[in-house]
Amino acid sequence: MACLHTIVPDNDSIMQSEASAFISSLPAGMQKRQETAVRKAVGGDSSSLDSVRSSRNSAFNPPEDVSCIDIDGRYRLYRPAGGTAEPLPLLIYLHGGGWCFGSVNSCAAFCSELTREAGIAVLAAEYPLAPEYPFPHALQFCSEALRWAHQNAVKFGFDGKRISMGGDSAGGNLALCAALGNDSYPLKSLVLFYPVVKAWNDNSVSWNRYGEGYGLDSGIMEAFNDAYIAGGDSKNPLVSPFCAVSERLAALPEILMINADHDILRDQGEEMSRKLSESGVKVTRHVLPGTTHLFITVPGQPSAFRRSVTLTSEFLTEK
User: Fold this and answer.
1) For 290, which DSSP code?
2) Where are the alpha helices (DSSP H) in the chain?
3) Phi and psi for 82 in degrees, rounded to 5?
4) What are phi and psi of 228, to 5 degrees?
5) pLDDT in the model for residue 197
6) What's the pLDDT score for residue 83?
7) Would you state the pLDDT for residue 116?
8) What is the residue extent of each domain of the chain?
9) Which pLDDT belongs to residue 2?
10) Which of 169, 162, 156, 104 is closest to 308 using CA atoms?
11) Could you tell me the fold of the domain covering 4-316?
12) Helix count and strand count (H, E) for the chain
């Protein structure tokens, strides 16, 4: 029996106050400048977008109790320091950034904290970015990461029966789409933070209410969509998983979805959760009250970040 849970944590006032302070701290005009950089890159001038990418790509040093290795310039693997006797559950993690920026550094804090709390392995993937590499390049890379994880499970100490995939925003989109296109390598579960499931302006209440000044403006989201789709079909289920037929959705594993409250993507997350549940998928969905987009990858909403780590840890370590 499918189930859909929407859970509101009890520390909502703290999350709301942190989100308000976070929004106030964002530089004026930043989203518009980033939107312009994406649009210019679509037109062939990537200089501004390269600067945005560089500014968001700060190196991260993991804590001493987390082991971190880079593999072939494609992956970054986090494991508990000291090793374990038993094979570890693995989460393949895909960073956000509208398919256009971000890197394994963007999600490093989350990956390392999850490794610490859950005692699992996390594999961050350095997928190629749009508009230089539009759909399906990133998706193909992420599907390859799933194949790689299964084929290297023994070498790196993964439990091949407990391999999950997740990501935030565009990364959540890629995780969900990789699972939809996967017929060969078992997935235990999916972990999705404020995922893009409709690559268009859905004219929802949340899209219209939070379309400016809440961490993900509608203008830059539409620029991201255009850069990634590159003139293709926005209703392709491997671009917009909301468009997948129920029969295909029914083959997906159990899903944890965590949405930001004050976010243009909130309502499409709710619609996606309902459609998944109606298709027979077990879905647990949380909306973190008062929060805005970005709390996984950008510092400033620590309570939402910590709550997300704990919820993910509990979800992935359930027997």
Assistant:
1) E
2) 12-25, 30-42, 47-55, 108-118, 137-151, 153-156, 170-180, 205-209, 218-229, 246-249, 266-278, 302-316
3) 95, -15
4) -75, -45
5) 98
6) 76
7) 96
8) 4-316
9) 46
10) 169
11) Rossmann fold (3.40.50)
12) 12, 9
Question: In angstroms, how far is the first alpha carbon of the chain from the final one?
Answer: 18
Strands 66-71 and 75-80, bridge-based pairing: antiparallel
Stretches where the chain sits below pLDDT 70 are 1-11, 319
Interatomic CA distance for residues 130 and 119, integer angstroms: 33
CB-based burial of residue 43 (10 Å sphere; 0-12 exposed, 13-18 middle, 19+ buried)?
exposed
**pLDDT single digits (tens) 237-247:** 999 999 999 99
262 CB-near residues (< 8 Å, 6+ apart)? 19, 209, 210, 214, 290, 291, 292
Q: pLDDT at position 8, please?
A: 44
Question: Which tokens sit at 1?
Answer: 């029996």
Retrieve residue 91's tokens: 């989460």
Does pTM surpass 0.90? yes
Residue 271 to residue 292: CA distance in whole angstroms: 18
Cα gap 83→95, rounded to integer Å: 25
Q: How far apart are CA 78 and CA 202, in angstroms?
A: 37
pLDDT tens-place string over residues 89-111: 999 999 999 999 999 999 999 99
CA angle 162, 165, 167 (to 5 degrees): 150
